[in-house]
TrEMBL record, chain A:
<dbReference type="Pfam" id="PF00903">
    <property type="entry name" value="Glyoxalase"/>
</dbReference>
<keyword id="KW-0479">Metal-binding</keyword>
<protein>
    <submittedName>
        <fullName>VOC family protein</fullName>
    </submittedName>
</protein>
<feature type="domain" description="VOC">
    <location>
        <begin position="4"/>
        <end position="135"/>
    </location>
</feature>
<dbReference type="InterPro" id="IPR018146">
    <property type="entry name" value="Glyoxalase_1_CS"/>
</dbReference>
<dbReference type="InterPro" id="IPR037523">
    <property type="entry name" value="VOC_core"/>
</dbReference>
<dbReference type="InterPro" id="IPR004360">
    <property type="entry name" value="Glyas_Fos-R_dOase_dom"/>
</dbReference>
<dbReference type="InterPro" id="IPR029068">
    <property type="entry name" value="Glyas_Bleomycin-R_OHBP_Dase"/>
</dbReference>
UniProtKB/TrEMBL annotation, chain B:
<dbReference type="Pfam" id="PF12833">
    <property type="entry name" value="HTH_18"/>
</dbReference>
<keyword id="KW-0805">Transcription regulation</keyword>
<feature type="domain" description="HTH araC/xylS-type">
    <location>
        <begin position="15"/>
        <end position="112"/>
    </location>
</feature>
<keyword id="KW-0804">Transcription</keyword>
<dbReference type="InterPro" id="IPR018062">
    <property type="entry name" value="HTH_AraC-typ_CS"/>
</dbReference>
<keyword id="KW-0238">DNA-binding</keyword>
<protein>
    <recommendedName>
        <fullName>HTH araC/xylS-type domain-containing protein</fullName>
    </recommendedName>
</protein>
<dbReference type="InterPro" id="IPR018060">
    <property type="entry name" value="HTH_AraC"/>
</dbReference>
<dbReference type="InterPro" id="IPR009057">
    <property type="entry name" value="Homeodomain-like_sf"/>
</dbReference>
Length: 136, 137
């Protein structure tokens, strides 16, 4: 029986820049930052209230996961904003929007009332986008 | 736009107050002054802040100080120095609050953190889920 999701990967263009975005801008905590030898780093972060879910900031590089041209193709797709990786939740969307904007986070959509709820869309430093909603 | 995004000026003022706490946590902060600077009465300020962040400004300030203390301890700063760097003026209140938040004293936290870092260096594969390791071959 599967019990829970423990890790989820987000593919990023640069781990140093992703660290700055997820930790210093979004306020996530670093769970594991393990150098794995030349060019390899296992970097996971957690949303502040969800220490049991590790988000792996996975660099898009040719190697174990991406073979041949796949890395270059994936980098291009990520840059273009192809991938929406999920929905984050906050207590108050307006306040979180103002705070993240003040920290330089780019929003594709400001807080907007949609038929399914109140949401904003922001983009990480690589081009991955997320929906941001507030606790109901 | 006004319907979808009401009272933007209130949000901006509360967010400014929160960002002020984020950057001045190491100083002796008087939350009355922060409320004044945000143009709120103290009680209105506390109520709105709590609605938005789920914590009173004082609780939030304490949680920021504890999080920053964790970072200093991780970097090897002594417990006493950490206590004052993050804005506490008494070692006993710092140690007590740290223990209440994390169920462990600052010195034990520091020791455990460094033991884990040592282990990561020695056996990094232990910290990576199997699926990613197995893809290597």
């Amino acid at each position: 029986m599967i019990r829970k999701l423990s890790h989820v990967s987000i593919y990023v263009l640069n781990q140093d820049s992703a660290y700055d975005f997820y930790v210093n801008k979004l306020g996530f905590t670093v769970h594991t930052d393990a150098p794995m030898g030349p060019g390899m780093r296992w970097l996971t972060v957690c949303p502040p209230d969800q220490p049991e879910l590790e988000i792996t900031l996975m660099p898009i590089e040719e190697g174990i996961i991406f073979k041949g041209d796949a890395a270059a193709q994936m980098r291009e797709l990520v840059k273009q904003g192809t991938f929406g990786f999920g929905v984050f939740e906050c207590n108050d969307l307006n306040a979180t929007y103002e705070e993240l904007k003040a920290k330089g986070v780019v929003f594709k959509k400001p807080p907007t009332r949609e038929f399914y709820g109140y949401e904003a869309l922001f983009v990480d430093d690589s081009g991955n986008w997320f929906s941001l909603g507030q606790k109901k | 736009m006004n319907d979808t995004y009401p009272k933007i000026y209130l949000y901006k003022r509360i967010v400014q107050a929160k960002l002020f706490i984020d950057s001045h946590f190491g100083e002796a902060l008087d939350l009355n002054n922060i409320a004044d600077e945000a143009y709120f009465s103290k009680f209105h300020f506390i109520r709105l802040f709590k609605t938005i962040y789920g914590k009173t400004p004082h609780q939030y300030l304490t949680s920021v100080r504890i999080e920053k203390a964790k970072l200093h301890l991780q970097q090897g700063t002594s417990v006493t120095e950490t206590c004052f760097l993050v804005g506490f003026d008494s070692l006993s209140s710092f140690t007590g609050l740290f223990r209440r938040y994390l169920n462990v004293s600052p010195s034990v936290y520091q020791q455990q953190y460094h033991e884990r870092q040592k282990l990561i260096k020695q056996q990094p594969l232990r910290f990576i889920p199997n699926c990613f390791v197995e893809q290597k071959d």
